[in-house]
Amino acid sequence: MAVNEYRGGRGTPRSSAFSDDASGKAAFHAGGQIYEEDIRSRLHRDLKTRQISMIALGGALGTGLLINTGPYLAESGPVSMLIGYAMVGVLCYAVMSGMGEMAAWLPIASGFTGFANRFVDPALGFALGWNYWFKYIITTPNNIIASTLVIKYWFNKEGYDGPWSSPALYVAILLIIIVFINYFGVGIFGEFEFWLSSAKVLIMLGLIIFTLVLAIKGRPNQAGGFQYWVNPGAFAPYLAKGSWGKFLGFWNVLSSAVFSFLGAELVGVTVGEAQNPRKAVPKAVKMTFFRIVFFYIVLIFLLGLTVPYNSPQLLSANNISDKTVSAEASPFVVAAMLAGVKAVPDIINICLLVFTFSAANSDLYIATRTLYSISVEGNAPRIFSRTNDRGVPIYALGASSSFCLLAFISVDLGSFKTFQYFASLVTIFGILTWVSILTSHIFFVRARRMQQIQDTQLAYISPFGIGGSMAALIFACTILFFNGFTCFSRDPSTGERFRWRTFIVNYIGVVIFAAMVAGYKIFMRTKIWGSAEADLFTGKKKIDEDENEFLASEKKKEEGSKKSVALRVYKYTLGNFF
Question: What is the C-alpha to C-alpha distance for residues 436 and 504, in angstroms, rounded to an integer?
Answer without folding.
Answer: 22
